[in-house]
């Protein structure tokens, strides 16, 4: 089996230093090498996607191995702003025009259920990661004005997803925001994504999952019965199933016109920043291009981000990092009506998107028993949970009623 090339596209997954890199409880007791040659499932990637996948597959019977070429949770998970939303990047009424009303409703309903499942997982495992349930304010902007938001509320109600349209006067009275309208909804959350991923991995390890780091997978060969994985240290590992949860270092075999890499930027202010009290309960994003999103942490930081560019390498520019941070700070301050202090963390990262805003989850075409998850857009943690549910059900031979929505090859 050839081992001369990497099967995932390597990237520096964040520039500068994300806030979460300085938080505690990220370390794990790792294996330095696999303890066996054969496994039931090998998961490539030890971020939030890999952690949730391991959690879903750890039944005490399967031999599950998680590998990563870097320290666990130190890839794209560190760059997440952890706005755990049920709302998909493409509004429901627009998604219905793209994939049909019934399918769009299923996608949005599944996303809402995933947030509830994530909340239950954190509670059941007792993970200390600052997890908080939140409301969401989706503000009118130049891409989606108040008329579009009214249509969106109607589409959500038809899908049994609760939301309320707020006109300009109500929005100003309740939140002090100057926009032509907004949608107020529930079923969202926020957290420290690195602590969340580490806690879930730690719990999976307690149920027998093996985590090896650093270990790089350099090639694969899939047969009808087994998947063989070559490692950078010369090993050949075998598994009945392999699952690539490698974030935006995506699997080359599934690169296609339905998936693209773009760049995004984010910042956080120091603790105890002066912010409106209502921000303790809400996260905000806007129907604009480029858009702005923001939330408050438990210790009073403002996390804000956006200014995305359709470039897979713009995030690596130090000049753009300074410029984008300045723009985000200015926009966030103007929206909230406050003067924000200089940020104490600024960072940039690539992330994957698809035309519909829906991720790609499932079996990789022409690679038997190989699964991949990619294209998570702004809903990384929520979609990671959906991926864990769909892939684990497939591996168990049970199937998932919504798998067709996210499949690489549509039925």
Please supply descriptive tags for the structure shown above.
411 residues, alpha+beta, D-Amino Acid Oxidase, Chain A, domain 2, ten-stranded mixed sheet, eight-stranded mixed sheet, 9 helices, disordered N terminus
Question: What is the fold's blueprint, element by element?
Answer:
Layout: E1 15-16, E2 38-44, H1 48-57, E3 64-67, E4 83-84, H2 92-99, H3 101-125, E5 132-139, H4 146-158, E6 163-167, H5 168-175, E7 181-190, H6 193-206, E8 210-212, E9 217-222, E10 227-231, E11 236-244, E12 259-268, E13 282-286, E14 292-296, E15 302-309, H7 318-336, E16 345-354, E17 360-363, E18 370-374, H8 380-395, H9 403-406
Parallel strand pairs: 2-3, 2-11, 3-8, 5-13, 11-18
Antiparallel strand pairs: 1-16, 4-7, 5-7, 6-7, 9-10, 10-11, 12-15, 12-16, 13-14, 14-15, 17-18
Explain the overall architecture.
A hairpin with a 5-residue loop joins strand 14 and strand 15. The strands form two sheets. Strands 1, 4, 5, 6, 7, 12, 13, 14, 15 and 16 form a ten-stranded mixed sheet that branches. The chain has two domains: 179 residues, FAD/NAD(P)-binding domain (3-Layer(bba) Sandwich), CATH 3.50.50; 152 residues, D-Amino Acid Oxidase, Chain A, domain 2, CATH 3.30.9.10. The N terminus is likely disordered. It is built from nine helices and 18 strands. Helix 1 runs parallel beside helix 8, helix 2 crosses helix 3 and helix 3 crosses helix 8. With 411 residues, the chain is of the alpha+beta class.
């Amino acid at each position: 089996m050839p081992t001369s090339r990497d099967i995932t596209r390597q990237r520096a997954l964040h520039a500068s230093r994300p806030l979460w890199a300085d938080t505690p409880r990220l370390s794990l007791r790792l294996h330095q090498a696999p303890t066996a040659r054969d496994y039931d499932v090998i998961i490539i990637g030890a971020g939030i996607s890999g952690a949730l996948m391991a959690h879903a597959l750890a039944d005490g019977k399967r031999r599950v191995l998680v590998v990563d070429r870097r320290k666990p949770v130190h890839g794209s998970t560190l760059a997440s702003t952890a706005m755990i939303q049920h709302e998909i990047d493409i509004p429901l009424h627009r998604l219905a025009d793209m994939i049909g009303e019934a399918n769009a409703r299923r996608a949005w309903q599944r996303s809402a259920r995933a947030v509830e499942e994530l909340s239950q997982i954190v509670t059941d495992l007792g993970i200390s990661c600052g997890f908080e349930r939140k409301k969401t304010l989706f503000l009118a902007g130049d891409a989606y004005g108040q008329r579009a938001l009214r249509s969106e509320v109607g589409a959500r109600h038809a899908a049994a997803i609760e939301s309320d349209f707020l006109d300009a006067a109500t929005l100003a009275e309740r939140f002090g925001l100057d926009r032509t309208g907004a949608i107020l909804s529930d079923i969202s959350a926020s957290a420290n994504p690195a602590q969340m991923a580490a806690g879930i991995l730690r719990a999976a390890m307690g149920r027998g999952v093996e985590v090896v780091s650093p270990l790089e997978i350099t090639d694969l060969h899939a047969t009808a019965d087994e998947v063989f994985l070559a490692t950078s240290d010369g090993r050949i590992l075998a598994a009945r199933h392999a699952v690539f949860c490698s974030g935006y270092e995506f699997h080359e075999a599934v690169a296609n016109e339905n998936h693209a890499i773009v760049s995004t930027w984010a910042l956080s202010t120091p603790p105890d920043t002066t912010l409106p009290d209502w921000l303790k309960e809400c996260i905000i994003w806007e129907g604009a291009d480029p858009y702005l999103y923001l939330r408050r942490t438990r210790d009073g930081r403002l996390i804000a981000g956006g200014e995305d560019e359709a470039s897979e390498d713009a995030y690596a520019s130090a000049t753009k990092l300074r410029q984008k941070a300045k723009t985000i700070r200015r926009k966030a301050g103007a929206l909230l009506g406050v003067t924000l202090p200089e940020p104490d963390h600024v960072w940039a990262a690539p992330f994957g998107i698809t035309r519909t805003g829906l991720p790609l989850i499932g079996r990789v075409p022409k690679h038997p028993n190989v699964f991949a998850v990619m294209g998570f857009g702004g809903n990384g943690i929520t979609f990671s949970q959906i991926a864990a549910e769909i892939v684990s059900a497939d591996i168990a031979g049970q199937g998932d009623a919504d798998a067709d929505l996210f499949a690489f090859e549509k039925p």
